[in-house]
Amino acid sequence: MTLNTMLQDMRKSLILLVVMAFAISCKESIEQQAGHHLDNAKEAFSIGNYNLAKQEIDSIRILYPKAFETRKQGIKLMQKVEEAEQLRAIEYQDSMIAVAQAAFERIKADYAFQKDEQYQDIGLYTIKSQAPTRNTDRTYIRAQVDELGRMTLISCYRGSSYIHHDWLKLSVGELYVDTPESNDRHEFKDLDVCYEWLSFINGNDGGASAFISANKDENITYTLYRKTGPDSSRPVYRNLKLNKDDRYAIAKLYDLSIVLQTLNEHKNARQEAQRHLEFIRSKVKEESAQDAVDKDE
Questions:
Q1: pLDDT tens, 132-168?
Q2: Would you list the DSSP string of 9-58?
Q3: In the predicted model, is pLDDT for residue 107 greater than 90?
């Protein structure tokens, strides 16, 4: 082997060592840079700033896709962050449920509750003075609220013949509200008297309940309309007066619907947080079991 050949081989070896050293230094640099974000995430997590912690962990994934070890640690930290978020959400929802439940307990005695355990999954709250059995001699508007807070407004007509009304207009002076059309009509006859009950179910009343609640101290009149064509209707019973007792009964039921809706919204949110928490914990458990298997191998 000549001296020139030896020198060429030495140069090649030196270049290879330099390349290897550079690659190692770059790898360490990437992990170190990613590690700064991980440290920031840990600090944010320790003080309860979960959004910032998640942003820092996401930065590792986006900016340093080859920082495998740091990304792995970031994934585990992200699971801890998500677990803590759900625990915080559950604690918050528990406090709001307690507030809404207390509000319900204060007012529930004002309402009559009806539920047939054999046939009904959800019970109904009403006002006794509006019970149909107490009002067979008049045309009026009544309301009911189910346990989920869904309010139904019912236009109760009594007359010598059916009018087949589809919707209502309620007015206070120049102010008015129209209900949508409803196909939920129950008609029956008793002792030659015709009755119609037109229902606007689960709050689908075009804001009529809210209108009555907001104007319970005003003189509210309403007119019953029947649809006569695709785009037309005609009044079939004009200028009925919604008496004070009915206005106040509907307003009280409207207030109840708000309380029960709020209560059930917080209960649903808590259940969702609990489901998410259980999912996270099951995933952590599975990964821990897999890590143990990998170590044994």
A1: 999 999 999 999 999 999 999 999 999 999 999 999 9
A2: HHHHHHHHHHHHHHHHHHHHHHHHHHHHHHHHHHHHHHTT-HHHHHHHHH
A3: yes
Give the whole-angstrom CA distance, residue 83 versus residue 281: 8
Q: Copy the structure tokens of residue 177.
A: 């509200």
- Expressed in angstroms, the distance from the first to the final Cα of the chain is 48
Residue 293 included in any domain: no
251 closest CA partner among 137, 97, 148, 110: 110
Q: Tell me the three state secondary structure of residue 155.
A: strand
Domain boundary among 59, 74, 104: 104
Do 125 and 260 fall into the same domain? yes
How far apart (Å, rounded) are the C-alpha atoms in residues 81 and 50? 6
CA gap 233, 225 in Å, rounded: 6
Q: Which domain holds residue 16?
A: 3-104
Q: What is the DSSP letter of 191?
A: T
